[in-house]
Design brief:
about 220 residues, alpha+beta
């Protein structure tokens, strides 16, 4: 199978499957849609990495890889449907009944965003939250792109930017509407300020109550 020699790992498989699906792990019974897998790859790469376990049902039952083509579909997803294409590491693991599970490791992207080619011709970025792949909002994608561009920026905060930082000290999380009202500026100006502060590693985004909000950056996470 793709020149992979399965290693014995029934206890290891039992251990990681018991964790269930979470921020860094996703079960895949079978692979049939490269674009859908690309969304998982994008979501893990835009977060802090993760792994796919191919041949495992949603309930954690080991079914084993049924078709060698599954691996090629995953490679196609990473190379043709992700921009930039993403490196993957495959490991074949043999369960106690002889079934083989493929572990696919996805590294955290050095530069975000990792975008996915959608069926309508658009490109969209995803982010892993718990056991879901969430579409990243446009503002977050623009902030990632600005930071990835490594454009030299003079670190001098404006009065409005200082006001935003102070507001985050009081409220912990804000949306763009809060920024607009608190700094008395248009949406375009508020979004540009958020993008700039993210590029400077002053603020970050966090998924709270089903949406991404603006929070103060954690220096330890930079």
């Amino acid at each position: 199978m793709k020149d992979l020699n399965a290693i014995k790992g029934k206890f290891y498989l039992r251990k990681i499957i018991a964790e269930g699906e979470h921020e860094h792990q996703d079960f895949k019974f079978s692979i049939s849609d490269a674009r859908k897998i690309a969304r998982s790859i994008s979501a893990f790469a835009n977060n802090s990495g993760g792994r796919l376990l191919i041949g495992v049902k949603d309930n954690g039952t080991i079914a084993g890889v049924r078709n060698e083509e599954d691996i090629y579909v995953v490679e196609q997803a990473a190379q043709l449907y992700c921009r930039p294409c993403q490196p993957l590491r495959f490991t074949a693991i043999k369960a106690e009944d002889g079934a083989v599970v493929i572990r696919v490791d996805i590294e955290s992207a050095e530069k975000r965003p990792v975008m996915v080619s959608e069926s309508d011709g658009s490109w969209r970025a995803y982010y892993r939250v718990a056991d879901e792949n969430i579409a990243a909002p446009p503002l977050m994608v623009k902030a990632w792109q600005r930071k990835a561009a490594d454009v030299p920026t003079l670190f001098t905060l404006s009065e409005a930017e200082r006001r935003l930082i102070h507001a985050l000290e009081e409220r912990e999380a804000l949306d763009v509407g809060d920024v607009m009202r608190g700094c008395m500026m248009s949406r375009a100006m508020a979004e540009e300020m958020v993008i700039r502060l993210y590029a400077l590693s002053v603020i970050d985004f966090r998924f709270i109550e089903r949406r991404f909000l603006i929070v103060a950056a954690n220096p330890e996470a930079q």
